[in-house]
Design a protein that fits this description.
This protein is mainly alpha-helical. The chain has four helices and no strands.
Length: 135
């Protein structure tokens, strides 16, 4: 049930507001304005046109929600999972490389990631003609 609520929350606000306006228009026309006589000529025909436009928007909204929006949200979740794994692999490689560089240069880092000065000092301490630290 929580997943369904999240699907509704991720809808664009303007589309959702327009949906509720159309829903209120249909309810207003079918339950209240149907019993009131015409105030001007062609008022009933305009009401029928507005009602049909509102019904068509509601059906288009339902189609959009079921076909486009739900698929987009599922695709987004799948992509985030895939990208998250790849990003964690890159971060792990980066941390491993930083650890090996700090061991090869015999320097202690103040934080998890070195700033540019610490990185420059680490590179100056490493002999470029020796074997690479990760090999």
């Amino acid at each position: 049930m929580k997943d369904k609520i999240i699907l509704f929350r991720t809808l664009r606000k303007d589309i959702t507001i327009l949906f509720f306006i159309c829903l209120a228009t249909i309810i207003c026309i079918d339950f209240w304005l149907i019993n009131i006589p015409e105030k001007f000529t062609y008022g009933a025909k305009i009401g029928v046109i507005v009602e049909k436009l509102s019904l068509s928007y509601i059906s288009a909204f339902i189609f959009y929600f079921l076909v486009v929006h739900i698929k987009t949200q599922k695709d987004k979740a799948n992509i985030y999972t895939y990208v998250n794994k790849k990003v964690n692999m890159v971060i792990g490689s980066c941390i491993g490389l930083i650890n090996e560089l700090s061991k090869a240069s015999n320097s202690n880092l103040k934080e998890k990631y070195p700033n540019s000065e610490e990185l420059t000092q680490m590179f100056l301490k490493i002999n470029p003609n020796e074997n690479a630290p990760l090999l």
